[in-house]
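pasting for ref
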Amino acid sequence: MASEKIGGTQTAVIGTEHVLATVTDAGTYELKVDTRNMANGDELELRVYTAVRSAESRYLLYSQGYKNIQGDGAADAAGDGSVIKASPPIVVPFSVLFTLKQVAGTGRAFVWSVHNLA
């Protein structure tokens, strides 16, 4: 059964990549971010970093961008019209890093959560 590993609210500073969570427990994890506060002109990137082996550096595994108003059928980069954005499930043998970066617009507050799917 899925459970929340960690969560919170991140107020974005434009151009800053904010580390939301670093998880070092083995498992399968998913990042979820509420984008309801986005407005036209806003651009957001969600990223996931991991390593191939435990002694190696983490590198970008997944990145997804979103622009403008989200939800209520609004056209967005993912094309789904939802305010809740989720990474794919990430199998983590040793560590994973989840980040959020707002690259344009007005800095918004984003509620986020990392779920342990195991």
